[in-house]
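Hello,

Our lab assistant flagged a job as stuck in the queue for most of the afternoon. It eventually completed. Since we weren't sure the result was trustworthy after the delay, we are filing this so someone can double-check. Below is the sequence as submitted and the structure that was eventually returned. Let us know if re-running is recommended.
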Amino acid sequence: MFSSLLRTKATALVRPAAARMMVANQQRFATAAAPTTGTVNDILVNITIVDPSGARKKIKGIIGKTLYEACELQGVELGAAGGGGLWETKRSETWSEPTFGESATVGFDHVVLTGKGATTSEVEMSRPEQHALEDYWDGKELYEGSRLASCVVVNKEMDGMVVYVPDRVDDCIY
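-- returned structure --
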C-alpha cells in the first residue's frame, strides 16, 4: 500500500513537469521558420552531347555522378566504361584524397569537353586516365578537352557544357 501511494505521488509530480516541457517544445517549434528544401533541379545540370554524325542530344546530368553514368541513364552509348572509379576525390580547395589506385583501366569512353565547366579544377586529368587515353587513341585523335567519361564528375559549373563523342575504338578487337 505504501508503494502504491509513492507511485501515485511520483506520477503526480512528473506529469506537470512533462506537460510543461511538451508545451514549451510545441511553442519553440511553432515559432521556428519552416526549413527550406531544395528541388531536383538544384542537383541537375544540362549537358549537350554531340555524336560522331553531328546529332545533338540534350541530357540532364546529376551533380556528383560521372559523365558516363549521366549518358548511360539517358541512353547515350559511349562504349565500354573506363572502369575503376576516380583516381582521387577532391575534398576541399587544398586537399584531394587518393583512392588507392582506382582509376581508368581502358580508354573506350573517350569524349571531348568544351564550353562551360570544361576547364574547372575538378576536371583535371589523372595520370592513369592520361595513360589509358594514350594507350587506346592516337595522338592526332586526342584534343585539348579529351577525357574519359567515366573519370569526369559532373559539377554545377558544367551546366550548359557541350560534350563531343568521337568515333569509337572498336572494343571487340581487344
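-- support follow-up --
The delay was a queue issue, not a problem with the job. The result is valid. The longest strand covers residues 44-50. The radius of gyration is 27 Å.
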